[in-house]
Structures are given as structure tokens and as C-alpha cells.
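Progress narrative, Year 2. Work on Alpha-1,3-mannosyl-glycoprotein 2-beta-N-acetylglucosaminyltransferase from Castanea mollissima advanced from sequence curation to structure prediction during this period.
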Amino acid sequence: MANMVLCDYRFLLIVAAVAFIYIQMRLFATQTEYADRLASAVEEENHCTTQMRLLIDQISMQQGRIVVLEEERKRREQECAQLKDLVEELERKGLQRLTDKVQVPVAAVVIMACNRADYLERTINSVLKYQRSVALKYPVFVSQDGTHPDVRSKALSYDQLTYMQHLDSEPVETERPGEMVAYYKIARHYKWALDELFYKHNLSRVIILEDDMEIAPDFFDYFEAAAALLDKDKTIMAVSSWNDNGQKQFVHDPYALYRSNFFPGLGWMLTRSIWDELSPKWPKAYWDDWLRLKDNHKGRQFIRPEVCRTYNFGEHGSSMGQFFKQYLEPIKLNDVQVDWKSMDLSYLMEEKFTKHFGGMVKKAKPVRGTDVVLKAYNIDGDVRIQYEDQPEFERIASQFGIFEEWKDGIPRTAYKGVVVFRCLMQKQFMGREYVDWVRQ
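Result:
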């Protein structure tokens, strides 16, 4: 019996030992599993910590960039504010110079500029050379489109003029693909500058020049005489100092003036009343071609000289030298000091000029057929050549070497379809239809 009890006791011990070993093995396996999980969790935590540090570093870098950009924005805002204050101060001083004087200006002269500082300097020096003696009558402005620093510095270096700056941040959308954005910016600049001069500075007349022009000695006297015509005759839309066919071989008489249905541009004067009409409908681009449309003339005409009072030396610009060598470089700039104050210009009034010009055309000897150039040279006195349509005009014009271009059915320089130019001392009249005032 005792042996059986001992045996049972040993069996129980063995069972207990096996159970204990089993429990220990399970505990060890569980601890190992938890240790592995803990190690994995620690590894994941370390990875997250690393990623978080990288993200924090990136955020810090971005914040640094934001701070730099914010400082740059504030700096630019300060510069713009200073520039605006400077422009307003300069304009105030310029306006004060005008209002302090008893002399009422005949017209302001505005030089339209953008990014050609060397051209601008040449133009300003030419204008001031003849403006000094009539400074109270013709205050000078420079209007810059954009922020080109050399142009701004050059304009501000002259105490004799007032500087204006057109800052336009609006994007340009062209109406047709392939168009040059520059022509849209130029049109915006012109409208802004003329609005400023007529409405802010309250001027009655403005002469528009570009930054690639020189003027003749009698430039200001010419426009003063023309201003009286503008006031008297409302059929005159503007007065120009330019003749498209003003090349040296085609002009002679510095006293001769004409009416024209074609807008010449390139140094021209208009009144506030005309600008009141044009400003609200000013085109987005190609303003000069727009002014040559008959619908915008409303039957009015332009005054132009035979011999130009401006010379355009701008071979490089928005038009990329178009026509320069053939038509602009050979232009004759008047070098005669004409006493315009003693001239009777009443013949340019519409009714008188119709008879005056018609008489000249009527007296000219007609030339027809082929070889009109040779026939014209063999005739003493003035000559008139009749053309039937644009192709015929272009053919004859190319033989003489004058401008062949038309705008809205009007040849350059034409009055009632008649283009006047000289060959040697002889006047040539090219007309499509010699109307009643010629036949009378």
C-alpha cells in the first residue's frame, strides 16, 4: 500500500513537472512574441520619428522661404509706394510750374517713350534746343510706358520737363493669333497719357511726339499758327508736322501746307474737344490705323506740310524698321526758319482750300497713257496724272517712288483722292476722280 501511494505521488510530481515545463515554455514563447512586437513597435516609432523630423525640416525650410518672399513683397511695396510718391511729386511740381505762370500754354508737347534711352535723349535734346525760347507756351512732358530704369533716369535728369510713368500690370489678350503684344501696350499708353494731359493737367491742346524724332527750327511757330486754324475750322481734326511723301526728291517749298483726308501722325496736335470724342472709343491696338478710318474722321481732314517739321530716325522699334530705308531715312527735315506769324493761312480753311487746291490741279497739264514718268519730266510746269483704281495708282506710284499704300480707300497724303508731290521743281497731281472743283 505504501508503495502504491509513493508511486501515485511520483506520478503526480511528474505530471506537475510536465505541466510546469509546459507553462514555462508557453511563457517563454509569449515573452518572445511580445519582445518581437515591442521591437517592431520601437522600430516603427523610430521610423515615424525620423519622418516627422524630415517633415519638420521641410516645413521649416518652407517657412523660411515664406518669410523671405514676404520680406521681398514688403520691399517691393515700399519701392512702389516711393516711386508713386516720386511720380506724384514730380507731376505736382510740373503742374505747379504751369499754374504759376501767367502764360497760357499753346500746347503741351509729350514725348512717348518706353525702353530706348539713347533715342529718348536725342529727341529731348532736339526738342529743348528750340523750346527754350518758347518754354512757357510749350511745356514738355515725357511719358514712359513701363519701368525701364535707363529711360526713367534719363527723363528725370532734365529739369526742363515733367516726367510721367504708365504702369500697366493688366495682361494683354490679342484679338488675333500671332499679333504683337507691343501694339496693344502702345495703344494703352497713348490713351493713358492723353487722358492724363487733357483731364488731369487740364490742357487744351497736345502735340504728340515719339522717342525717335527730331524737330525743325520752326516746329513751334508752325504749330502755334496751326492752333489758330484748329480753333476756327472744326472740319480740321488734327495738325501734323509730317508728310509721308516728304523725301528729299519730292519736296521743295517750306511754306506750302495742304489739307489731307489721310491721317499723317508722326508729330501731330489735337485739341481736347477731339480727344473727348476719341477717348471713350480708343482702340485696343493699332491706334494710328484706326484714326485713318473714314468713320472716325466724320468728314474732317488734317493739315500737313510739304516739307516735314519732324524727322524719324527710329530704325529699331516696334515696327522693326518697316519702310525705314525706303521712306523714312530719306525724309527732308525743314531747315528754313519760316515766319509763320506773318503768314496768312486762311487759304487752308475748308471752303477756301477747295477752290485754292482745285485751281492748282486744274492748271496742271494732264498726262495719260504709258510712260507717264518720262512724259511728266518732258513737260514744263505742273502735271496731273489720272488713275482709275488702286492697282493703277500703285503702278504709277511705284514708277515715281512715292508711297503706294492705301488705308480704308485713301492713298497716303491724299486730298479728295489727289496725291501731291514734286519732281525737281514740278508739282505732280495724281488723282482718281477730278471732281467738280477741278473742272470748274
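The CA atoms of residues 358 and 436 lie 9 Å apart. Residues 435-440 have pLDDT under 50 and may be disordered.
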